[in-house]
């Protein structure tokens, strides 16, 4: 589940980054911000997808990704609700939709990380040997 959640996050982030770069004027965000966010999402998407292809993704990096996704999601909601940028209606819809998706990725990644940790705990401890 963890590897699936990371790969899904990677593909979605990469696609969002490309979309963000292609529809710059339509959402109402300043061009420099939008280009920067789009490029970040492309690079982030590649990184997270690659992490999801590893046999055992590094738990610390996954935790950072989960925290980052939660912060990104909350920040996106605040951006849309507090009107930090003069977003168009399409821009507000896009920001809120990706915020919900990113928070969903964080939840899936957290569940996957917990299930991977509990799977590693099962059956890995040696049995105590009786000396009778």
3D structure, described in words:
It contains five helices and no strands. The chain is mainly α and 132 residues long. The protein has one domain.
List key phrases describing it.
single chain, mainly alpha, 132 residues, transmembrane helix, 5 helices, membrane, transmembrane
The global form is elongated
- Mean pLDDT metric: 87
Count the helices. How many?
5
What does the radius of gyration come to?
19 Å
Instruction: Output the helix-strand order.
Output: HHHHH
- Which residue ranges are poorly predicted, with pLDDT under 50 across at least 5 consecutive positions? none
The residue fraction in helices comes out at over 70%
Number of E-type strands: 0
Main sheet attributes: strand count, strand direction, barrel closure: none
Distance between the termini: 43 Å
**Structural class by secondary-structure content:** mainly alpha
Beta-sheet strand percentage? under 5%
- The overall number of domains is 1
Q: TL;DR of this structure?
A:
With 132 residues, this protein is mainly alpha-helical. 78% of the residues lie in helices and 0% in strands.
Helix and strand arrangement:
Layout: H1 2-22, H2 24-27, H3 31-52, H4 59-81, H5 89-121
Helix pairs in contact: 1-3, 1-5, 4-5
Transmembrane segments: 35-52, 61-80, 92-113
Protein name: SPW repeat-containing protein
Keywords: Membrane, Transmembrane, Transmembrane helix
């Amino acid at each position: 589940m963890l590897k699936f959640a990371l790969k899904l996050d990677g593909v979605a982030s990469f696609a969002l980054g490309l979309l963000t770069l292609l529809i710059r004027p339509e959402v109402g965000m300043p061009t420099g911000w939008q280009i920067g966010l789009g490029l970040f999402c492309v690079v982030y998407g590649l990184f997270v997808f690659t992490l999801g292809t590893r046999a055992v993704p590094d738990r610390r990096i996954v935790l950072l990704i989960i925290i980052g996704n939660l912060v990104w999601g909350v920040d996106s909601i605040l951006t849309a609700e507090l009107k930090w940028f003069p977003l168009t209606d399409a821009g507000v819809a896009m920001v809120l939709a990706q915020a919900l998706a990113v928070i969903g990725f964080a939840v899936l990644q957290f569940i996957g990380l917990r299930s991977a940790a509990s799977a590693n705990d099962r059956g890995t401890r040696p049995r105590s040997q009786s000396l009778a």
